[in-house]
């Protein structure tokens, strides 16, 4: 990462998307998003020493289908009554290739009370001052996790001759994040 002002940045949830995709019945995809996300990014002078801490409200899952969302919130999947939040806490930022804007973000993801390490391929989109004088930074990150690694094993077998199950184990994650530097820190930049 280059050209990112050191300091503590706040996640701008209104300009951030945390999305997921799973295969349904082996032939199509179901996409969803989480509408309530908060967090912070602490940028060090050495960008590889930076860290991010994100909390996702599991009850904010939205696949565009209320009955499916209710099932995802239930015990078969997220069990949001007992586990209302998911968290991601980074542990490492690694350079990736020759492009200083691309990096690997390594961290611990906790879903349904189970924590596992994950790696996300990430890209720094840049830093700018918006029309309202706010210093902003943008990032994209993507990766894939196994539902089973987090104790989310519910499924239903298909009756197709080839077999298979209703919901894939693999879950693709796509994040588009915007962070804002508080005015007093942005003024020092």
Q: What's the topology here?
A:
Blueprint: E1 7-11, E2 17-24, E3 28-34, E4 37-43, E5 51-57, E6 61-62, H1 66-73, E7 85-95, E8 102-111, E9 114-129, E10 135-146, E11 167-181, H2 183-186
Antiparallel strand pairs: 1-4, 1-11, 2-3, 2-11, 3-6, 4-5, 5-7, 7-8, 8-9, 9-10, 10-11
Query: What is the succession of H and E elements?
Result: EEEEEEHEEEEEH
The parts where pLDDT drops under 50 for at least 5 residues are none
Strand order of the largest sheet: 1-4-5-7-8-9-10-11
Q: Compute the separation of the termini in Å.
A: 16 Å
Task: Give the integer mean of the pLDDT values.
Answer: 91
What can be said about this structure in brief?
By secondary structure, the protein is mainly beta.
If you had to describe this structure to a student in words, what would you say it looks like?
- With 189 residues, the protein is mostly beta strands.
- 6% of the residues lie in helices and 53% in strands.
- The chain contains 2 helices and 11 strands, in the order E-E-E-E-E-E-H-E-E-E-E-E-H.
- It has helices at 66-73, 183-186; strands spanning 7-11, 17-24, 28-34, 37-43, 51-57, 61-62, 85-95, 102-111, 114-129, 135-146, 167-181.
- It has an 8-stranded antiparallel β-barrel.
- Strand 4 and strand 5 form a beta hairpin.
- The chain is elongated and about 55 Å long.
- The mean pLDDT is 91.
Which characteristics define this entry?
189 residues; mainly beta; eight-stranded antiparallel barrel
């Amino acid at each position: 990462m280059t050209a990112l002002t050191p300091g503590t940045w706040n996640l701008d949830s209104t300009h951030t998307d945390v999305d997921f995709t799973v295969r349904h019945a082996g032939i199509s995809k179901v996409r969803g998003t989480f509408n309530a996300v908060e967090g912070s990014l602490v940028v060090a002078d050495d960008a590889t020493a930076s860290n991010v801490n994100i909390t996702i409200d599991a009850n904010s899952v939205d696949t565009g289908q209320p009955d499916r969302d209710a099932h995802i919130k239930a015990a078969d999947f997220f069990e949001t009554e007992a586990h209302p939040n998911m968290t991601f806490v980074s542990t490492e930022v690694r350079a990736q290739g020759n492009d200083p804007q691309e990096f690997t973000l390594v961290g611990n993801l906790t879903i349904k009370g189970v924590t596992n390490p994950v790696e996300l391929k990430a890209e720094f989109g840049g830093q700018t001052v918006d029309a309202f004088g706010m210093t902003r930074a943008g990032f994209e990150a993507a990766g894939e996790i196994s539902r089973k690694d987090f104790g989310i094993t519910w499924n239903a077998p298909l009756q197709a001759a080839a077999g298979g199950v209703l919901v894939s184990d693999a879950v693709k994650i796509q994040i588009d994040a915007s962070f804002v530097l508080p005015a007093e820190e942005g003024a020092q930049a």
